[in-house]
Amino acid sequence: MALRDTHVTMAHGGGGRAMRDLIEEVFTSVFQPPGSEDQARLMDEALQQPGARLAFTTDSFVVTPLEFPGGDIGKLAVCGTVNDLAVGGARPLWLSAAFIIEEGCEIALLRRIVASMAAEAALAGVRIVTGDTKVVDRGKGDGVFITTAGVGVIPPGVEIGAQCIRPGNVVLVNGVLGDHGATILAARGDLALSVDLLSDCAGLGHLMQAVLAAAPGLRAARDCTRGGLASALNEMAAEAGVAVELEETLLPLRPEVAGVCELLGLDPLYLANEGRLVLFCPADQAEAAVTAMRALPEGQGACIIGRAHPGTPGRVTLRTAFGGARLVDMLVGEQLPRIC
Amino acid sequence: MALRDTHVTMAHGGGGRAMRDLIEEVFTSVFQPPGSEDQARLMDEALQQPGARLAFTTDSFVVTPLEFPGGDIGKLAVCGTVNDLAVGGARPLWLSAAFIIEEGCEIALLRRIVASMAAEAALAGVRIVTGDTKVVDRGKGDGVFITTAGVGVIPPGVEIGAQCIRPGNVVLVNGVLGDHGATILAARGDLALSVDLLSDCAGLGHLMQAVLAAAPGLRAARDCTRGGLASALNEMAAEAGVAVELEETLLPLRPEVAGVCELLGLDPLYLANEGRLVLFCPADQAEAAVTAMRALPEGQGACIIGRAHPGTPGRVTLRTAFGGARLVDMLVGEQLPRIC
Amino acid sequence: MCLGIPGKIIAITDAARLMAMAEVSGVRREVNVACVAGNDLEALVGAWTLIHVGFAMSLIDEDEAARTLEALRDLGEAQEALDQMAAADEALA
Amino acid sequence: MCLGIPGKIIAITDAARLMAMAEVSGVRREVNVACVAGNDLEALVGAWTLIHVGFAMSLIDEDEAARTLEALRDLGEAQEALDQMAAADEALA
Amino acid sequence: MKFASEFRDPAAAKVLLAAIARKADEIGATRAKPVHIMEICGGHTHSIFRYGLDKLIHDGVEFIHGPGCPVCVLPMARVDECVEIAETPGVIFTTFGDAMRVPGHRKSLIQAKSAGADIRMVYSPLDALELARRNPGREVVFFGLGFETTTPSTALSIQAAARERLTNFSVFCNHITVPEPIKALLDDPDMRLDGFIGPGHVSMVIGIHPYDFIAADYGKPIVVAGFEPTDLLQSVLMVLTQIAEGRAAVENQYGRVVPEHGNPVSLAAIADVYERRPSFEWRGLGEIDASGLRIRPKYAAFDAEEKFGIGYATGRRNVPELEGCACGSVMIGKLKPTQCPQFGKGCVPEMPLGALMVSSEGACAAYWQYAGAREAAE
Amino acid sequence: MKFASEFRDPAAAKVLLAAIARKADEIGATRAKPVHIMEICGGHTHSIFRYGLDKLIHDGVEFIHGPGCPVCVLPMARVDECVEIAETPGVIFTTFGDAMRVPGHRKSLIQAKSAGADIRMVYSPLDALELARRNPGREVVFFGLGFETTTPSTALSIQAAARERLTNFSVFCNHITVPEPIKALLDDPDMRLDGFIGPGHVSMVIGIHPYDFIAADYGKPIVVAGFEPTDLLQSVLMVLTQIAEGRAAVENQYGRVVPEHGNPVSLAAIADVYERRPSFEWRGLGEIDASGLRIRPKYAAFDAEEKFGIGYATGRRNVPELEGCACGSVMIGKLKPTQCPQFGKGCVPEMPLGALMVSSEGACAAYWQYAGAREAAE
Ligand code: SF4
Ligand code: SF4
Ligand SMILES: [Mg+2]
Ligand SMILES: [Mg+2]
Ligand SMILES: [Mg+2]
Ligand SMILES: [Mg+2]
Ligand SMILES: [Mg+2]
Ligand SMILES: [Mg+2]
Ligand SMILES: [Mg+2]
Ligand SMILES: [Mg+2]
Ligand SMILES: [Mg+2]
Ligand SMILES: [Mg+2]
């Protein structure tokens, strides 16, 4: 226990002994990366199969508050990158984790975040093999930012992506929408809302494997994070060159999430999720995919919500309960609470 | 040109059209990552050779100012990760780049940084294949932070690392020390120093390949970034279980860097470098390594600076011009300008 | 304009400042009840109000609501009658 | 304590505030010259001063410096003479 | 009863649509010669698009989107003044989220925030008041914006600030009223409207009699409506019925929320804190007599216009709007958004030129967002 | 000539080391019975370790590291007061980097900064003055710290602030003087010193005569020395020569920088701005009479003690130092750092307990850093 501070100071970023102690005691003793070099040296036999490809992705995580009902920034940082690998059909293997820590950050908080990352990585079957820490002056950061990058292997034969979507494919989700976004809005405190919601934050690697096994014709998957279901679908529809029609009556939504949206004038289709994905698969495999997802905790609320059709490419519409239709466009900027 | 703003606002981080426009116009149109999914799908035949290993590393970059003589944060972010791959013996192949942008950041500045990254990646022979952007509120960031992760391939047979260092190995560097640290100190402006120095920021992939070819017995290499030469050597000596003695008279140092250090009471051995590495190799290959480095622009100042010996494991000392010796310890916190 | 939604008053939180807790689909937020408060603040608990920008602006009249729904039902029955008549007409034609 | 280093005055930057540019191994920094300024500020240009926390605290006396170095040289010569004597002694022994 | 889902019943909607169709046929309304019904309130516009009512309703019924979005009718000069206040050192400028993206001549509030102004979104003026209590060293300004629905909330907040003797809270008052612009629209010779859907939430404050002049003086039917889809359809049916019967009256479909005479507490708070301005500038409609409110001299200590020496008092009014903006014509129903030369060109939601593109209730943004007019324009 | 490298000549050093060895032998100094020479100044301590002089010099010469690091002798209570000022809302607290890590009872300045205080490192009090000019709405406090070398710089800065009539600049004065603690050390019955290396940069301000009492009253040689390695060795040789010759005088090895009577401008500025405190607390040495300076009443507007009602004026002095700290004994040469029970245990550079572990000139930090005593302790 060379680390005696309770809070991070600039000394912990200076490249000296204080930094080394912070890294060893808070980070590497938990993650146990292989070797002592500032790079991980890795091999997995799946990678050497002919036709296998390496999948590589990254995301920075900047959530406020750092801890919230159902998760924390560490859990997000692991799940987010695991999911970006998984939705492309890759088996997630290795993660890097880089921390930008604001001076004054509580070290106990860092330890909780790191523990949460380690637990989530274990659940997902990935290893955090390399990392970095930087300390920035107070007022130049926000507690802690985490950037994870992930490497996985796409086995030979797996070929999914928006370009594989065809008219007639069915659109599915793995559960209720907007829990994460609504939870964070309430947890931030500045709107003084109180609600019993948990973030949906979850790793979806096992769920994707289950879907690939049950519905081998799966065309594409994407996690519905920032910008929500609506943004993911708009991107996919545009890349696929198809139109998508959703059924309002099929969209799974908790009453509390609807309540937050009504109070603030928000649209739940644009709320962020951190454990929800949208899938396109052939109509005849849709039920199998739903069944496979529902067998897993992170797929309890799986259901069909619409289908792709040969309309205006990139156009996403919602058929309302009245039979009316409205365009579900890309969001313009961010969703702002409205009074009118 | 859907992007009409001159400065980043929270709207550019909101997951909607403004974000998409920023990403497309400023980032992906320059980096041209493969495919449209949020993951890169990659393969390189070097990776499928028996005995090859994948190298994986990451760093966050948080420099102030964002642009400085000799480089900018983008150049740093590419070189830093390329170098972390290279010093482990890997051939750098692919980079991810995640940006945390502070609200208010000038978009023209982002474009310059991105151009600099693209140019440096081209020089280094790596591709930026995946990325991310986040926008944080003003006062929660510092212009822009960049986190790069890198993937490379260590060819079969290459086995270098601190654990391979043996007593008798010679210690080399590829050039003058502390240019980057002294440049940044002066560029920050708050000490009101003015000096004609350029950051040493450079990619060292080609140099490492040249050294590996000229001195195949190379034992270990490490880039001397935060904490400087002293910190890198302390870590390596400890991991190797050897002592290291440096010769003060051999240490290459620009007079201007010495001047900055004298004015502020700093020790140049602890100043950061961004294009300098320290090498350990068998004595009989040291001259070959020096010659190979000097043939390249980033190795112009290459020279021998000391050697490993069987003293107290982990102990780094400096033999002064007088024949005296002093301990070159790990820095405690960060180096602070002194008056006394 | 004027996003307003029905919320139920579930508790008085600060009688002096006329603040109460309102609930909308399980979401709670403190609101000002100056516009709907009678003499007995506690009597508000259980009442439905129309909430706008953190204020309970109007008490919702349950009877009126029932009447409006009834009018819809009546219209529906009239419609059915009309449809039946139309069907009969068609059958006769 | 009291980190002080020799720096050369290369220009007067603000005569009213007694500020001048000093140079140390190619590094320039504005310093206050109140402690070393005579009547003719410009005469300072080219002078070496001892700089501490942004102030030129003392003019460096070149003659004195030379004298100190000379004393070292003298000592060296004396040492050499001694060494030769010792060597001669040894050779004789 | 939850007073919401009950009024979203698709079966009831079907019945209403059929009844509307019959009534429209009865009065001879066709696509070529439609009945023009203006929904005054932007909230109604929002509901129409959200539930796709414009596509479901009989071809002979055309909705004209009225001026009832307080964000949309805000003139650029007023946004400039917001930015000026927000950029004053020491100020915390608080606003509803809607107003963040409204363009001024120099910049919007979201741009001012990105350039360093301390601008915070709040859900309620009470949140701004709380910020003032917690930051005694800072001046907290609330951007008071909205029709009669919102006016009581700022009036009550100012009264509370006065009771607590807060010295660092003020309101930049931009409250406006509904009846006056309706009168201005009705007086426009280019205007051709057959009836109105009245604003439900404004009316819960002011009651239904302020609209008497519409029926009495202009002979147009008006039905005060709720915001759920069956509310709206029922109200359209009531308007058509009046037309069919040759009547013109003020009717109240939204009786569960709207009392005939409004809310006495709200009205008293408004009367205590505010007085009418001689006139107020509306984007696209110009100055309209007696259409805006200002803070009474007795509350001058809470009036940001007074505290910052900004706004109407200074006489620097009538900054010209940007050229080529057809907001005014769109708002009186003369042009459709898609007929504006700027629509989808100089004016898009990412960088709105006119205010009708800013809020999702703005007629232009609504067209862009829900009606897919973008594809045509792009 | 660059007045630096010329005095780092290894050949000259070799000659000096040989001469020192001869002189040490001549006076019979051995490892078991060494000559104790105190270098008063922390800068000399730094040079000794940086160039490894302690290892090169004859076994019979032992350096005792004096109290000449102003950061090291700062009592915890004074750091507490710095933190208190720095945590005052609106204050920008400026300091030399050295002082950032000095522990107080609650926290160090670096910890206070991490907890939100606006603390900035500066190179010069002029930089603090410039901050005050640029931030008229903030109170800029400079942590005035140091011996006579540094005192003129803060005196001149206060005079400049007075001339410019700045109202938001003040100095928290902790300036101390060298002769008084030397006298205190010489008066300690446990003390056994044979001669002194005098502080070169202090002396360029005060001249060499303030040390006359050392030779005259206590019969000890003192040589004012420069900071380059041959300066130091030459000075040691001069001390040994005095000892060998049975003399005790004040000599000046550093004539190129140190005028016999010091710097008149500096002395005048000090005299104008400062006056002696009756006494001042030194870490490990306790209160020493007349060893500290305070700002004269005529400059009270620039005195942070006055402005913040903090420090000696309040009478809340004599906060006890932490237990087990042997700083005092180390500083009088009675104990070596490694003999302190806290060395490397409760007290490490990462989290210094005593102040001698804070600055790299602190005797304990110097031992830890350069002498490798850590390995023994760990
Ligand atoms: S397109 Fe823009 S400028 Fe034209 S009417 Fe609509 S909002 Fe106004
Ligand atoms: S080890 Fe620490 S406590 Fe002991 S004398 Fe040194 S500085 Fe003081
Ligand atoms: Mg991603
Ligand atoms: Mg994702
Ligand atoms: Mg790193
Ligand atoms: Mg912060
Ligand atoms: Mg690294
Ligand atoms: Mg590195
Ligand atoms: Mg991303
Ligand atoms: Mg900032
Ligand atoms: Mg309304
Ligand atoms: Mg000195």
From TrEMBL, chains A, B:
CDD domains: HypE (cd02197). Gene3D superfamilies: PurM-like C-terminal domain, PurM-like, N-terminal domain. InterPro entries: HypE (IPR011854), PurM-like_C_dom (IPR010918), PurM-like_C_sf (IPR036676), PurM-like_N (IPR016188), PurM-like_N_sf (IPR036921). It holds the Pfam family AIRS. Residues 49-154 form the PurM-like N-terminal domain. GO terms for biological process: protein maturation. It comes from the Bacteria. Residues 166-317 form the PurM-like C-terminal domain. Belongs to the HypE family. This is Hydrogenase expression/formation protein HypE. The gene is hypE.
Automatic annotation (TrEMBL), chains C, D:
It comes from the Bacteria. PROSITE patterns: HUPF_HYPC. It holds the Pfam family HupF_HypC. InterPro entries: Hydgase_assmbl_chp_CS, Hydrogenase_HupF/HypC. Gene3D superfamilies: 2.30.30.140. One of its GO terms (biological process) is protein maturation. GO terms for molecular function: carbon dioxide binding; iron ion binding. Involved in the maturation of [NiFe] hydrogenases. Involved in the biosynthesis of the Fe(CN)(2)CO cofactor. Belongs to the HupF/HypC family. This is Hydrogenase maturation factor HypC.
UniProtKB/TrEMBL annotation, chains E, F:
Gene3D superfamilies: 6.10.20.100, HypD, alpha/beta domain 2. Transmembrane segments: none annotated. One of its GO terms (biological process) is protein maturation. InterPro entries: Hyd_form_HypD, HypD_1, HypD_2_sf. It holds the Pfam family HypD. One of its GO terms (molecular function) is iron ion binding. Keywords: Iron, Metal-binding. NCBIfam families: hypD. Belongs to the HypD family. PANTHER family: HYDROGENASE MATURATION FACTOR HYPD (PTHR30149:SF0), HYDROGENASE PROTEIN ASSEMBLY PROTEIN HYPD (PTHR30149). This is Hydrogenase maturation factor. It comes from Frigidibacter albus. The lineage of its organism: Bacteria, Pseudomonadati, Pseudomonadota, Alphaproteobacteria, Rhodobacterales. The gene is hypD.
